[in-house]
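DATA SHEET
Item: assembly model
Revision: 1
Owner: S.N.
Input lines:
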Amino acid sequence: QKEVEQNSGPLSVPEGAIASLNCTYSDRGSQSFFWYRQYSGKSPELIMSIYSNGDKEDGRFTAQLNKASQYVSLLIRDSQPSDSATYLCAVNSPNTGNQFYFGTGTSLTVIP
Amino acid sequence: KAGVTQTPRYLIKTRGQQVTLSCSPISGHRSVSWYQQTPGQGLQFLFEYFSETQRNKGNFPGRFSGRQFSNSRSEMNVSTLELGDSALYLCASSPGLAGGLMTDTQYFGPGTRLTVL
């Protein structure tokens, strides 16, 4: 079983819609969760981090964490064509020092 | 603050050669992690260095090695290059906090794209 799993997609949503990206993880001791966005040919850039159960909002982005279900998601409201990218979920646990585990990413396309 | 820098940005080598990639972390960051990214495998963790010591290591052969200097700059070396080593090599910088409930956030450099012919 992989440490972090994401639906690889591709996920297509129309412009202005809500895009929902999901991620599950296997280490119950995980305490830090991150979403990165990666445009084609570029390096990943951090969108959000979340550490506590519940929702965390930042502009059009909302991260949701449910540690009991070992589930973290990212919602993108009012999706724009510029949001078209691959979204990577990353998890970090004290059990593994500072090693981050990344999912394989979900490819999102926002259709104008 | 300046971001993470990686040099060179592009590299073309032939099988059997060796290569050294360099990463300069964000000022004040003490941890540097290296990843290999290929279309089929996603981000694969190579190793992490903190205060000049390798703290974590992924499942890569011994041909892949790294080191970190006292100024936190890091290098990774790949010896006896194989065609399958063609990839984007990413360096990620973080403060390198040890323990605690909150862990680090990693910030990526632009990457070095290695092509092995």
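QC remark: The interface with chain B takes residues 31-32, 34, 36, 42-46, 49, 51, 88, 90, 92-94, 96-105 of chain A (CB under 8 Å).
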